[in-house]
Amino acid sequence: PDALEPLAAVVGADLAAPLVTGGSVRYANLDYAASAPALAEVADHLTEVLPFYASVHRGAGYASQISTSVYENARGTVRAFAGARPDDAVVFTRNTTDSLNLLAGCVPPGLDVLYLDIEHHANLLPWQGRPHRSVVAADTVAETLERLGAELAHGGVGLLAVTGASNVTGEVLPLAELAALAHAHGARILVDAAQLAPHRRIDMAGDPGAVTGIDYLAFSGHKLYAPFGSGVLVGRPDWLDAGRPHLAGGGAVSEVRLESVAWATGPARHEAGSPNVLGAATLARAAEVLGALDPVAWTRHEEQLRAALVDGLEAIDGVGVHRLFADAPSAIGVVNFSIAGYDAGLAAAYLSAEHGIGVRDGRFCAHPALTRLGLPAGSLRASFGVGSRLEDVERLVAAVGQLVEAGLGIDYAVDAGRWVP
Ligand code: PMP
């Protein structure tokens, strides 16, 4: 039972949500997959570093020196969190989307990028702008791996770009197998870890029993219990040092003449302009806190909450939980479902207004994945993390049960935000 207690304190855990029926209740935040509430340690660190706000890499003053060292030390913390190789580059970006766009400018021109149809748009659209190929996933992971293997065997693929955990269903892909498959065909692998990093220990370099052999990893601060505006791309430096600088401007150069430039190598090449020091510092602090969690307790907490939610929802008539694969090795705290006869947007509005529960509805920036699931009009997604309690998922199950029991023939008056018979 202890595993069902929150694993960490998050900011806003005791926020009250107003109900249209009168009064208010503790807000049940079940939208961690969109943006996770900040960890208490992250909020503390923010106030610690804020007084030293000053220019980075550009000032000799005391505060500048502190800011610069906070920023540069954050790279080492992220490297350790990701289990990266000592020579891997750690480039700070705005978010996962930014990281993937950066890498898209660095994959050598003659090579294709290969991706699946289940990806978030951030791991799909940047590749569409350059030579690429896509594969439609099968109903099983095993068959999907075979399809990817067949495509890789045609040759010419430089990078396999896959999600670590689906933002739609939470299903985790077998990354060690995918990495081995890519490498066997001379390709590298990028893992979009926007969803995986906040939920599972990752070991890019490879450690027995961990997710191994990842060449590039991207994730966002705001899904990792840190504020918006920071992200990271970690990975092999050769393509990054030879590729197109992500942004042109100050700090990314070694020498500038009026009509030409010699670009810097290393992370600076892609980080032109004044960097987001607080973003990097808070992302790194979150990585430190998550890195210190017991991985077994971390996964058990999440699996128990997930099981309670999935079992509870599936026991309600007309409620379906959606999965992409019949054989995914595991799943993080993201559960996708729909309620027969109810529009997802209206059901989400009802859960918020009547029960103080925050979920996401829609197509989750993954239109091909939703098409594949047969949900062109979208669905609902409940997601949770280290600050979540059993009580949160039980409230969702009870609220969905009440909605279904109320039966059809009741319309939700969106404008008024209340139920009318
Ligand atoms: N990939 C996945 C799997 C995601 O869930 C998200 C965010 N929903 C992204 C990429 C994009 O992240 P960001 O919006 O922080 O760039």
UniProtKB/TrEMBL annotation:
One GO MF term: cysteine desulfurase activity
Co-factor(s): pyridoxal 5'-phosphate
InterPro entries cross-referenced by the UniProt entry: Aminotrans_V_dom, Aminotrans_V_PyrdxlP_BS, PyrdxlP-dep_Trfase, PyrdxlP-dep_Trfase_major, PyrdxlP-dep_Trfase_small
Catalytic activity from the UniProt record: (sulfur carrier)-H + L-cysteine = (sulfur carrier)-SH + L-alanine
UniProt keyword list: Pyridoxal phosphate
PROSITE patterns, per the entry: AA_TRANSFER_CLASS_5
Domain Aminotransferase class V, residue spans: 29-396
Source taxon at top rank: Bacteria
Similarity comment: Belongs to the class-V pyridoxal-phosphate-dependent aminotransferase family. Csd subfamily.
Protein name from the UniProt record: Putative cysteine desulfurase
Organism, as annotated: Sinomonas atrocyanea
